[in-house]
């Protein structure tokens, strides 16, 4: 109010000052009277203004509204919700599961909401008991080496530091992990354990989903036992069959300004035309591809080296970081979906959330074209999850096809087996399902509502910012395979990257990207020896590491032993960066280059062959070990080889050797950058 009053005060003061100056012949009494009148006028002026502004007070209070909005408790009370499902999600799956659970709630006379922990103050968990029949569910994915996902980092930090009393809180946790990783489901396990330590009451056991097996089946199995436990706890029962409830309504725009239509941007409209740092997941940088060359000299596969220009982006990276790229779906797949559903893909539309209180107004940026949604925003290449099949079943006009879809979406053993064989193992994507079920022709807007978001793909950066401050290098292999149905499936990102042509104007050479920081770091002291193990494209971060060690050496720094163990199929076909590695070895930067060719030679495990030297580097040289590549087989085999070396040369039993290697990991001397 003061600020609003100040401008109207200035003219009053200036006019009274002017009057005093103009008539200096006035007596003291006159000056006094004029001052009194002016003072009374000013007082009346303010008093009157205040009275007039009283109705505006609610507007002024709304300035503080965003702070209050961060209370999920207030939101739940306001919208009549009693179940909140938080998700820690990196690739969208945990968010998808959270949405499914919150949608389930209505079947039991309860109301749920899915929530991103990044958007709320989680210390409010202690107040959840203020709401009748309240429950907090956590769908928590584990990222990398036992880390929380980006959006759950603050929640994780709060849990570690909190001494809150959560004795009134009822909770359940479903974790999403992968058994091939060392820290399987670390985040889910931690949240479950920590909430109990803070006094919260677990109403159903921790669910551990394994993406190396069948994550969807793990979730369904947990979910079908979770809801009966909720019913028993609250004394409620299912109100009826699961029904299809639309979350979004379609609005078709016939008369729209095309400047207001999204064309593939992730966040801000026109952000690709008018780029502003800082660049991140919601605001990627459009990097120009300056080099795209084939690395392998032969064979059926296509291995490639790309260079992205990050000049003038203010993007900084370190060796070992990841670059995330947002790919686009193959236009032929998009067109086929449009044809099979008889849709004009250039229709401008919006999908608007029917729940006006939801923070998520649209499933993807709207308004946009169906073509744009299917190209940039939706995942059309992965096999759809069972909830998508269930929702689509109603549109199959053939009774047999409808029954088949419902069966695959059910929790019956026969249905799960059918889903596993017909969808997962056959790698049927949504187009293949529509092709193989001729009576299934859903409305395209409902299909767009159901399909998950197309996710960014992460690659280990194959360069050092000390040597290449204005470019980021990627090393990747194009994914292409025949499915059981005889279809040719192609990896979305790698095939899209393969077609990025340097030195061409337009989008054909642009890649939306951002950098994700990693814990995969060279030792602080350059004199510390490093042992790097990375077969195939697992060599990527080590090219950056070697570049950096070479640069440090040029700066006159003492650089420790730099040892590389690399493997590929054939020396003459897919020996990646062969010339560069030979040069680094000749210059003395790479002190040992050990290469195994799996299809050319019998001796494949060079680590075991050099075990005495390896142990000496670890034990005496305090070497740091780095492993990059396939988590399922390679990383496990390498770890077992280290157990063997430590046991033999450190004179330890197998359990002691395992403990020794685990301690190296804890101290940051054994780092993994692996994928499944």
TrEMBL record:
Gene Ontology molecular function: flavin adenine dinucleotide binding; FMN binding; NADPH-hemoprotein reductase activity
EC numbers for this chain: 1.6.2.4
Domain Flavodoxin-like: 83-227
Lineage: Eukaryota, Metazoa, Chordata, Craniata, Vertebrata
Keyword NADP: yes
CC terms in the record's Gene Ontology section: cytosol
InterPro entries: CysJ-like_FAD-binding, FAD-bd_FR_type, Flavdoxin-like, Flavodoxin/NO_synth, Flavoprot_Pyr_Nucl_cyt_Rdtase, Flavoprotein-like_sf, FNR_nucleotide-bd, NADPH_Cyt_P450_Rdtase_alpha
Transmembrane regions: 25-46
Protein name: NADPH--hemoprotein reductase
Cofactor dependency: FMN; FAD
PANTHER family per record: NADPH--CYTOCHROME P450 REDUCTASE (PTHR19384:SF17), NITRIC OXIDE SYNTHASE-RELATED (PTHR19384)
GO biological process, one term: response to hormone
One Pfam family linked to the record: Flavodoxin_1
Keywords: Endoplasmic reticulum, FAD, Flavoprotein, FMN, Membrane, NADP, Oxidoreductase, Transmembrane, Transmembrane helix
Location of the FAD-binding FR-type domain: 282-523
């Amino acid at each position: 109010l003061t600020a609003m009053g100040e401008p109207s005060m200035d003219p009053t003061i200036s006019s009274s000052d002017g009057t005093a100056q103009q008539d200096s012949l006035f007596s003291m009494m006159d000056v006094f009277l004029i001052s009194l009148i002016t003072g009374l006028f000013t007082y009346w002026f303010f008093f009157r203004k205040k009275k007039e502004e009283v109705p505006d007070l609610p507007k002024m209070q709304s300035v503080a509204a965003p702070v209050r909005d961060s209370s999920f408790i207030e939101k739940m009370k306001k919208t009549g919700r009693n179940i909140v499902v938080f998700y820690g999600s990196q690739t969208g799956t945990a968010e998808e599961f959270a949405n499914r659970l919150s949608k389930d709630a209505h079947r039991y006379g309860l109301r749920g909401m899915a929530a991103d922990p990044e958007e709320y103050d989680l210390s409010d968990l202690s107040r959840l008991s203020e709401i009748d029949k309240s429950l907090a569910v956590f769908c928590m994915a584990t990222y990398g080496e036992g880390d929380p996902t980006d959006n759950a980092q603050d929640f994780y930090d709060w849990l570690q530091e909190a001494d809150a009393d959560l004795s009134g809180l009822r909770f359940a946790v479903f974790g999403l992990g992968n058994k091939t990783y060392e820290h399987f489901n670390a985040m889910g396990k931690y949240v479950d354990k920590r909430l109990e330590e803070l006094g919260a009451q677990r109403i159903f056991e921790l669910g551990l989903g394994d993406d190396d097996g069948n994550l969807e089946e793990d979730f369904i199995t947990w979910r079908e036992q979770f809801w009966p436990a909720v019913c028993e706890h609250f004394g409620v029962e299912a109100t009826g069959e699961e029904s299809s409830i639309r979350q979004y309504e379609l609005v078709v725009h016939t008369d729209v300004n095309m400047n207001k239509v999204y064309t593939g941007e992730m966040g801000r409209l026109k952000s690709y035309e008018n780029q502003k740092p800082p660049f991140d997941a919601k605001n990627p940088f459009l990097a120009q591809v300056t080099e795209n060359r084939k690395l392998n000299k032969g064979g059926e596969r296509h291995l490639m080296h790309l260079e992205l220009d990050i000049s003038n982006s203010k993007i900084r990276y370190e060796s070992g970081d990841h670059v995330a790229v947002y790919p686009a779906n193959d236009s032929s797949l998009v067109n086929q979906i449009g044809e099979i559903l008889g849709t004009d893909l250039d229709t401008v539309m919006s999908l608007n959330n029917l729940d006006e209180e939801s923070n998520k107004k649209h499933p993807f940026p709207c308004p946009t074209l169906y073509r744009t949604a299917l190209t940039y925003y939706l995942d059309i290449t992965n096999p759809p999850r069972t909830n998508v099949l269930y929702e689509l079943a109603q549109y199959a006009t053939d009774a047999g096809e409808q029954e088949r879809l419902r069966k695959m979406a059910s929790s019956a053993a026969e249905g799960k087996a059918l889903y596993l064989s017909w969808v997962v193992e056959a790698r049927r994507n949504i187009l293949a399902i529509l092709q193989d079920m001729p009576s299934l022709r859903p409305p395209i807007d409902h299909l767009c509502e159901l399909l998950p978001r197309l996710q960014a793909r992460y690659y280990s950066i194959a360069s050092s910012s000390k040597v290449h401050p204005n470019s980021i290098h990627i090393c990747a292999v194009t994914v292409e395979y025949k499915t059981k149905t005889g279809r040719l499936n192609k990896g979305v990102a790698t095939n899209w990257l393969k077609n990025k042509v340097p030195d061409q104007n337009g989008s054909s050479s642009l890649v939306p990207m951002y950098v994700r920081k990693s814990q995969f770091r060279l030792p602080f002291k350059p004199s510390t020896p490093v042992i790097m193990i990375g077969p195939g494209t697992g060599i990527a971060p080590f090219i950056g590491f070697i570049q950096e060690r070479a640069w440090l050496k040029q700066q006159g720094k003492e650089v420790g032993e730099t040892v590389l163990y690399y493997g590929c199929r054939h020396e003459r076909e897919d020996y990646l960066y062969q010339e560069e590695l030979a040069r680094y070895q000749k210059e003395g930067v790479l002190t040992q280059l050990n290469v195994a060719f799996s299809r050319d030679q019998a001796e494949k495990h060079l680590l075991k062959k050099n075990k005495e030297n390896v142990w000496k580097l670890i034990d005496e040289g305090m070497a740091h070990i780095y492993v990059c590549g396939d988590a399922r087989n390679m990383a496990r085999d390498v770890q077992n080889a280290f157990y063997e070396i430590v046991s033999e040369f450190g004179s330890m039993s197998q359990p002691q050797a395992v403990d020794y290697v685990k301690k190296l990991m804890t101290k940051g001397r054994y780092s993994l950058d692996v994928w499944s």
